[in-house]
Design a protein that fits this description.
The chain has 279 residues and is α/β, with parallel strands linked by helices. Helix content is 40%, strand content 22%. The protein contains ten helices and ten strands. Strand 1, helix 1 and strand 2 form a beta-alpha-beta unit. The longest helix has 20 residues.
Amino acid sequence: MTEILVVANETWGGRRLRELLEQRAKVNPSLSIRLVVPQSLPRRGSVIYLQSVRDAAQVRLDLALSVLEDLGFEASGEIGDSDPFNATMDAIADHKPDEIVISTLPATASGWLRRDLVERVAEASGISVQHVISDLEDDSPPPNDTTLVVANRTASSAELTTHLAAIAQSASEHLFIVVVPALGGDTKSATEAQDHLNDVLRQLRDAGLTVAGLVGDPDPFTATINALQFFRVSRVVISTLPETKSGWLRADLVERVRHYAVCPVEHVVANAGEAVTAN
């Protein structure tokens, strides 16, 4: 069996990468793919809750493996070091691949190319390295319509579920990425937020929605802008309690995100009983 090691982050499901792998599979039907998704530190904003970086990489990895499996590939994967060179070399040492494929953005947008990643890996490994360039403006990973949902206390509200269901009806294939900010930087807060997220994801799947999620930074604005750097989305939905009960609205969260984001930002007001946490 021939194994190709694929290293990709933002371009994990790009059309050009898929086409190259399909060409390889035609030549070698026994091809297997090992995907490495390096953890991606945000370009702006502080990461107080570092687990969100790994969680975001896990979401990208799961989505990429799902795409590859839908295309008929035998694929497995792992989360790599935040340094793409270290992530690649670690995977080479563990898996001894026959070929390496590195997928990047164009040179003007790629930090990996500015660090000469392709040449460094080829020189250090002695293995054939194929470089694929994907321009996300016309080569976006599927699904092409993705909504980022930011919510905590109201994440399981009927108002939010109804709003998301209406969005889903507008596209044949729609993904929702749910971010639940933790209430603090300690282990207990992270565990409680993860349990809440798991319940919300189950509820949304029961409603027929395609969802993935992660626990975000305790500061909801930082959690949102980090997620916008982790994922390419077509809109943001922020769900809060009414203004009289919402700490997020008192902090002007929705308008701050609208000022930062390059996509539409929608606000859902939900009634979730008496607030025990501010959103």
